[in-house]
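pinging the channel bc i need a second pair of eyes. not urgent but kinda urgent?? the chain im working w is below, pasted from the shared doc
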Amino acid sequence: MTDRATADGWRTGWRHRDWLNPPLQVVRDQDDLLVTAAEGSDFWRTTSYGFIHDTGHTLLGDFPDGTAAEVRFVADFSAQFDQAGLLIRAEEEQWIKAGVELSDGVLQLGAVVTRGVSDWSVAPVPEWSGQEVVVRASRDGDAVTVRARSGDEPWRLVRVAPLPPGLLRVGLMCCAPTRAGLVVRFTDLRLVEADDSLHP
């Protein structure tokens, strides 16, 4: 896999990207971005819950084939379904969100893949609570490979999922489905070279 040091300058200028569903507040703190999510914000389509939510906050830019997007943020969550990570979006019914969220009192690493309807997969990472987390999504043709880690630990494979070829957009994402007052500290956002292969 390619090291994040090959960044092309896409990181914390935060320019040349547009908000889908602007958050309540965005504050620059030196190179960090503090994003305040609206209560009830979320991305989900139908499965199990029966509702469609397309109200989460995401700062999107182009996602060329052969690149990877990385976002870093502090996983400081306290309410059910507080979440942050990456969103990769083709259109309203085709997208992937990947990151960490608090679910039933435990911090979880996971992804939601949506092609008309959403699915959801998670794995517990309680040791990441309060830590800086990095989520990376590599685009290779019709496949998106998501990995994540905290600190200097090895990358964990989160998901390999299909998305249609053509125009995709990607960017940081946060949602607060159940409460007001969630502020997420994003510390980095950049494009790097896509991972060399699916397996190390």
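so DSSP finds no helices and 17 strands in the chain. and The first strand starts at residue 18 and ends at 20. — does that match what u expected or am i reading it wrong
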